[in-house]
Every structure is written in structure tokens, then in C-alpha cells.
Input
Amino acid sequence: MSQRSLIEIPAGKIFILQGSPGNALLVLKEGSYELIGSVGGDDKLIAREHVESAGRLMDTVSAKDSFIGETGIILGRHLGSYRAGKNGAKLGVLPINLEKTTMMVLKTPALGIAMAKNIAARLLEVNKKFSSAVGKIAKYQKQLEEFQIGFYKLVEGIVQDAQDEKPIEDAYKKAKIMDTYKQGRKLVEAQKETQNAFRSAISMSTHGTQVKTVKRDEVLCNEGDEGDEMWILTKGELWVYIGGQKIGEIAQGEIVGEMIVLLENAKRRTAQLKAVQNCSLGVIPKNSFEKVALTQPKLTFSLCRMLSVRLRNTIQVLLTADTSSPEAVDNFLQRDHQTSIDYGALYEGIKEYDDVLYRECDELVNKKEAIDKMLDEFKTEYGLENAAAVK
Output
């Protein structure tokens, strides 16, 4: 902690760029800062000129001692750009990497709790910008993630079913460097990490954790309900509805309801959750969370990671939903189209082995058709039928 220093940022100056490496934890001491989102994700550095001309304000923060940069450390790169507010900003700076941050959280669980609450507060503010149109985009975003997870699992299954077949091994090697495989692996690993941490917390804690079951077609909670607990789905599947419209699914390993537990001003459920299969959920009540987190710091760090990913995805969904922006539309169409290409390329690599891998081949064809149908629905819904083909 001896390396910590104070810096002053003049009003309006950008001091972190979206896509830059996360290598420092900052703390707001005076003034305020703004979180600015730009189309393009966080896998590449966004130019300062682009942020200034086309960036969108996502949140303004003035709470003293709030963190800046923790999501960048957790994700590897900053999910947005940060700009000093109208009166400037005085920041405490601690250069630190992911490994040291993890050690700090495990050693000082209260730090992890504070980080989780900080990210949740930012996510809550960004969520307020959602509209019904953005909710529809969120549905497509969730479907795309499910296709990415499916691709990863399918590739892993293929290599187990067809060992010692060199053409299939070659197809597997090619698939492993595809964007769809990489994104699916990240999503699966994040789900496993969160699920393991949560299960450990439930099994080892004596602070009121429990298990809840919900039968098929039953509602776990309704939009607008008051709540006082968070859940992790350990078995089954939940569908998410806002305003009566389905916007996504909750898969095994995902956490829901955490905002009510983490934030004092979040008292009502923001969506209806309905079971489409018999479900089991781990439960941590609000009045037990901090006691559980103090004894299970891995759970808190997993929450921080999950919230960081959710914040990053929410920002990009909001930006993509601006269909008046050709760049935003092109960005979404390219990602969707690339997933379809990757499914098709893997099929071409293994189709000669249809007698060995017929189920996998059928699944590849069916999934590619479903992705293309989703892309057509997206274009139709937003009047993009005549959009140029993505290359």
C-alpha cells in the first residue's frame, strides 16, 4: 500500500481509455467522474478522439471513496472510458494487478464486499437507461451468449468422441482459435467459478444460507416484488420477463437477485423469473450476506467478476441498441454473423465423419440455422432488411 499516491485530474479530462489494460485501483477522494461507453467492446483500445466525439455517458459518480478501475483489473481491460467531472477529480492511485487484487480480497474480505457494492451501484445506474427496445436487444445478446457456450461445449464433446482421427483433430484445433469458442469458454469458466464459490458458501456457512426448489412453470419472483435474498441456479433453467416480454434465460451456475442484497436502494425485483424446468437454487438472505462473504471471500470475488461482465455487456447492449448509429448496428451484426460463420466452418471440418459424429453435425446445422434466423429477426425488428451483408 506504500505505493499509493494522489493525483488531480482537471475537469473534462479523460484519464482512462476504454480497452486499456487494467493495472491500477483508483479511489475518488474529491470531485466526480463520468463513465463513458463506446461501441466496440473492450478488446481493443478506443481512441481518445472517438470517445470525445461519439462516446455515450453511462454514469456520473461523486460518492467519496468509490472505486475506479476494479472492473478493468478483473476483466483485464477497462470496459469504458473515465473522464473527470465538471469540478475535476482528486484520486488515490494504487498500481496493482489481478493476482495482487485477488490476494487482497482473500486477505481482506471487506474490500471485496465494498468492490462488489461499488460495481453493483454502477450497474444499477446503467440499467436505468434501459428501455423496451434495449430489452429486446438484451434478448438477442443473451441468445448469442447461449450459442457461444453451446459452441464451446460442442467442440469439447467432439474431440472426446473422435480421438485419433487427424482430420477431426485439425478441425478441433481450428475451432479453438475461433472467436465463438473463446467467448464460450470465458462464459463457461465464469459460470463454474461463481457456482463453485456459491456452493462452497452454502455448504460451509452457518449464517442462514439455504436451498430453494421451484417446480416447472412456477414463478420465482414477479417484476416489482419486494425481495431480501439472492440466488444461484444450481439446477434447471429460468426465463426472464420484463413487461410481460421474454428477454432472456438464466442458465445453471448464474446468480440472480444480487442487486437487492448488495444495495440499500434496490428493494424491488426488476424482472419476473419463471421456471421452465424443475429448478434448485442456492439462497443467501440479505441479512446474512456480509457474514457469509466475510467467511467466504472467494464468493465475493466471483460476484465482482460476474458483475463486471454484466456491466460490460450491459454497456455494449445499450450502445448497440442505438440503431440510428451505423457503427452500433454493424458491430452487433458482425458478432452475430461471425458466430454463424464459426458454426459453419466447424461443420465443414467434420461433415465427412457424419457416421461417427452425426449428432454433432446435426446440432451444428441446426444451431447455424437458428443463429441465422435470429439475425433475420433482428434485422426485421429494427428495419434493417436491406442492411449490407457483413463481410
Q: What stands out?
A: The CA atoms of residues 30 and 243 lie 40 Å apart. The chain has a mean pLDDT of 82.
